[in-house]
Design brief:
There is one protein chain. The chain is an alpha/beta fold and 403 residues long. Helices cover 36% and strands 23% of the residues. Strands 1-2-5-6-7-8-9 form a 7-stranded mixed β-sheet. Strand 12 and strand 13 form a beta hairpin. It is elongated, with a radius of gyration of 24 Å. It binds MU-OXO-diiron. The site of MU-OXO-diiron (FEO) has 9 residues, from helix 2.
Amino acid sequence: MSRAVELVKDVYWVGVVDWDLRYFHGYSLSTHRGTTYNAYLVCGEKTALVDTVFTPFAGELLQKISDVVDPSRIDYVVSNHVEVDHSGALPAVMEQCPQAQVLCSKRGLEGLKKNYYRDWDFRVVKTGDELSLGNKTLSFLEAPMLHWPDSMFTYLKEEALLMPNDAFGQHFASSARFDDEVDLHEVVEEAEKYYANILYPFSRLVLKKLEEVQKLGLEIKMIAPSHGIIWRQEPEIIIDAYRSWASGEARPKVVLAYDTMWGSTEQMARSILEGLVEGGVEVQMRRVPLSDANDIIKELLNAGGILVGSSTIHRNLLPTVAPLLEELTDLKPVGKIGAAFGSSGWNGGAVEKIEKQLSAAGIEIAQEGLDIRWVPDESEQKRCFEFGREFAEKVLARVSSEA
Ligand code: FEO
C-alpha cells in the first residue's frame, strides 16, 4: 500500500491508487491505465480532509490519514463533489470523527443527504466563503456542471494550491504523484480522454470558469485534482490545454470512423483515407466495432473534423456505429466539421441517418454525403478519393482560420 505523500508543508495526499480499474462508473469510460482517487489532508491548527475516496478503499484512506494524524482529530471534511468515487468513504471517515463539520455546496448537501441519509453537521459554502484552520485558510469556488451541479473547487490560499476535484484530472494509476515524476505525454493523453468523454458538453462553462479564476486573480502554484497526477511543475500546461479544448482549437487532423458489412464501405474508407492524406491532413482511421469509442472521441478532441461511414441495413446505419454517434450527440464536440459516407444495396439510408446524428451532435456537415451502391467501381473509388481530398481542404481552411 502506498503511503501519505506531502505536497507542500503540512498538506498530504492520502488518496488511493486503483490499478485495476478498466471501466469507469458505468457510463462508458474505458480506463486503460487505471485511476486514483485523490484525497488531501490539510493540517493547520485545525485539520481538514478535502474529499474522500471510492467506497471500497475507505480502509486504505483511513490508514493513510493515520500515517499523519489520528483520524479522530479531523475537524472538517470538505466534500467538493458527491459522486461516490469521492464521497463513498465519507461514512467510514465520519465514524472516526463524528464531531467533524462537513462542508459542501448547496447542491452537494442535497446529494450527500440523499446518498447517505446521515445527520452530520453540514455547512453549506458558496463562492468566496472561507474556512480558517488557524494558520491556513481554505476558500471555496462553486463550479456547477464541472461536471455535476454540486461540483466545487477548494483553494488553499497560503500555498496557492487548487483542489478542483474532477477538473484537470486524468485516469492514470501510478506509483508517482507529481507531473515531474512521470511521462507527461501519457498524462496529457489521459487528461485529453477525460476532457473529451466527461467535460466536452460543458466547454462553455469551462471557459467561463477559467475567465472567473483569472478575474479573481487567483494565483495557482499547484493543481491537485481528484484523479491522477498532481500538476506542480507547470500547472499552466493543463490550464492552457483546457482553454484550447474548450475553445475547439484543432490540428490539421481527421478522424475517419466506419464499419462495413461486406467490405464495400471499407474500400470507400481506404480511398477516402488516400484523399485525406493527399489533401495534407493527419488521419486517425478506426473501424468502430474494433475500437474503443472513448479512444475515438479522444482522437476527435484535437482534430478538425470527423468522417463517419456505414453500410446501410434496414434503411439505417449499422448498429455497430450507432453508439459512437449517440455518444457524440451527448458530448457535443466543439467546433468540428463532419460528413458521412457508405455503401448500400437496393436503397440507401445510412448516410442520411449519420448526417442527422452528426448535426444533432453540433458537428457542422461540411459536404454532401457519399452513398455508393454495391461495390465501388474505379470511377467511384476516384469519387471517394476526391471526397477525402475535399474534406481535407475544408479542415485545413477551418484550422488556419482559427490560427
Ligand atoms: Fe470523479 Fe465525478 O467523479
